[in-house]
Amino acid sequence: MRSSEKKQVEESKKAASNGAVVSDINGVPSVPDSAREDISNATSESEDEDWHNSSSDNDGDSSSISDNTDESSDEDDEDTKAINEAMLDYMGALEERRQREALGSEEEEPRSARTEVESDSSEDEVPSRNTIGNVPLHWYKDEQHIGYDLAGKKIKKKEKQDQIDSFLAHTDGSKSWRKIYDEYNDEEVELTKEEVDMIRRIRAGRIPHAEVNAYEVPYVDWFDWDGKGHPLSNAPEPKRRFIPSKWEAKKVVKLVRAIRNGWIKLDKPKEKPKFYLLWGDDLKATEKTANGLTYIPPPKPKLPGHEESYNPPVEYIPTQEEINSYALMYEEDRPKFIPQGFQSLRQVPAYSEFIKERFERCLDLYLCPRSRKKRIDIDPESLIPKLPKPKDLQPFPNICYLEYHGHTGPVVSIAVDPSGMWLASGSMDQTVRLWEVQTARCCRVWSLDGPVRHIAWNPRKDLGILAISLQSKVLLLDLELGTSDPDEVSKLLALNPSVMDNDGDGALVTWMKHENLKALEVKHSQEVLSITWHHKGDYFTSVAPDANTRAVLVHQLSKQQTQNPFRKLQGRVVTAMFHPSRPFLFVATKMHVRVYNLVKQQLSKKLMTGLHEITSMAIHSKGDNLIVGSKEGKICWFDMDLSTQPYKTIKNHHEDIQAVAFHTAYPLFASCADDSTVHVFHGMVYNDLLQNPLIVPLKILHGHSKTGGRGILDCCFHSNQPWLFSAGADSVIKLFCD
Questions:
Q1: Are residues 25 and 144 in the same domain?
Q2: 45 in the same domain as 152
């Protein structure tokens, strides 16, 4: 390119950047924008022709170029074409930049700016800007980004144009038809000229690349027949091809011998397809007649028995009064045959019901359809659940180790302290006794004003406080044990002066100091039958079934306050217990167990026992399972995560169940009843909610005698050991060990 022409190109570029009218090197003004695309296409076609001409010229001999007399004119034409091409590319890029600035777009450089033509191979593709892979894009519809780039940074979504802007951009843009939206990278890709040409060739059914010639490989004829008058081998045929083969004859003889001996079967019988009725009966069980119907033999008539003897013993012959009474009975209860006595067989008259019975049998054979009942042969052992052996579930209490004697009346309630060292018992002889567990020695005896109904030990180890219910009072007794803190116990059992001012006629209970004992007294309006402590040792409940709306009261020892959580109770309350770890209160009435949420102050669940009258209740240490005992001798196990119906119902006692108990450390529970027996069970509760609890009966403990129609009145487990205490109406407490 000459220096003058280069200067002219630079001046035209500056003029184009300043917005002036641009002309080519010959002084011709530029073409308008609407016709720029047609000019570029025409120019590209001329460029292709020039390229082919130049390539063909280059393939010629170099000497032909040197011999050309118009060499200078050809160089001028080539420089002019290069300048025109550069000008057109520059003007196109300038116009695209103006359109982007007008639309406010921040798109990246189009793919047309790429210098090299991409191939159709996946290895040559430009790597994607988005690295999320081939995942559905609707996962990112609510996000502000569409994925992540190679550096791990979020790719923000671009602002979408409205319909008016997109329409104007499509109308004004000369190359808008070449743009394709890439939704994975959130960008518009402009197709190059080569890619558009490739798409057109594919749609026309041609090879994508124009430079590929599918027929450039010439045909090669591997055989040349010119001048060849004979085949490859012209040897004469040998004699062996015209005589029978000796070895084939031996093979035929061998096959004939095998066929005659039956070793080879030529015609195998075709197997007929076996069809059967999909919903039909077993063909082996019933035979079919010629008409295709299943034949079932008729039932055989009943043969005469001993009651139809012609000369029965006299005691089997009914009197006339008995015969008359048969007429007053229902027909189905009336005897079918009335025996009679005859001296000899020839005196027996004809059977009066013979014709009637034969007629009814014929009607049955004619009208009644027959059916064959299939009896299912089931092994009775398979119906019994497979449970582990009791010896594999040790330890559990099975022998009587100690007996505690001292009470003169029935022992109605027993309780073990949290440390497991002491045992407290309450009896109808109006005394409460403190026993040493390992020696059965009675350490203390407290004489009270009335028979004891129930006792409960405070669950805190540092507080030696025992709650005792007798008549309409609840005593909070200081046992003065060496393990308890005397200052804290004295502070808790000291009467609060503010409580004395609040006591009046409308108070729920009356808190007062006991006159003779070191105890705090809570006086109720009716007789208290049950007491239970909260696991933290500050709250306890008292149940007085005859107190109507005040049947269940919740007391707080530290503040000496009483609350009535229920305005109305449905049914007679038997007992009430706190949940071991959650703010729930279980209230057992005669037929149902209601679970109340103390935080929300509403009913959470209602357990349907299906029993006539509940007598006792115990809650598992995890709190999700509980058992109830009834006067029918049944135990109902409830899994509250499973259902409000009983998971298992066990009928193990013959008389009323008096108490049920769970062990706090071992998978054991027990029940005692008036039949003077204690049943010990293995009750394993799993942490996996998909696995049901395992219940296995282990041992039936005997040893108490029945007194006044009462047997064992209470039972409880040791705090740490697999031991069981039982208290009976015979005034004896027994310890069963493993």
A1: no
A2: no
Domain region containing 436: 391-737
**Higher confidence at residue 17 or residue 333?**
333
Residue with tokens 């028979």: 451
Do 712 and 599 share a structural domain? yes
Q: Does residue 641 share a domain with residue 506?
A: yes
Cα 307 → chain centroid: 64
- Of 177, 210, 243, which one is at a domain's C-terminal end? 210
Please, what is the average pLDDT of the chain?
A: 79
Together in a domain, 688 and 543: yes
Is residue 505 a contact partner of residue 520, using CB atoms and an 8 Å limit? no
Say whether both 89 and 186 belong to one domain. Answer: no
Q: Who contacts 3 (Cβ-Cβ below 8 Å, separation ≥6)?
A: none
Residue 222 in any domain: the answer is no
How many domains, in total, are found in the chain? 3
Determine, yes or no, domain membership for 373: no
Query: Contact, 660 vs 635, CB < 8 A?
Result: yes
- Radius of gyration of the chain from its Cα atoms, rounded to whole angstroms: 54
- The reply to whether 252 falls in a domain is no
Per-residue pLDDT tens for 406-426?
899 999 999 999 988 899 999
Neighbouring residues of 159: CB distance < 8 A, sequence distance ≥ 6: none
**Whether the predicted pLDDT of 170 surpasses 50:** yes
The confidence band for 178, taking pLDDT boundaries of 50, 70 and 90, is: confident
Pair 98, 166 in one domain: no
The string of pLDDT tens digits covering residues 61-117 is 333 333 443 444 454 455 556 556 656 666 666 667 666 665 654 444 444 434 344
Angle, CA 199 vertex, CA 44 and CA 166 arms, to 5°: 85
Question: Tell me: the pLDDT tens digits for 525-573?
Answer: 889 999 999 999 889 999 998 888 888 999 998 888 888 888 888 888 9
Residue 446: burial class (beta carbons within 10 Å; 0-12, 13-18, 19+): buried
Gap between the Cα atoms of 364 and 359, Å rounded = 9
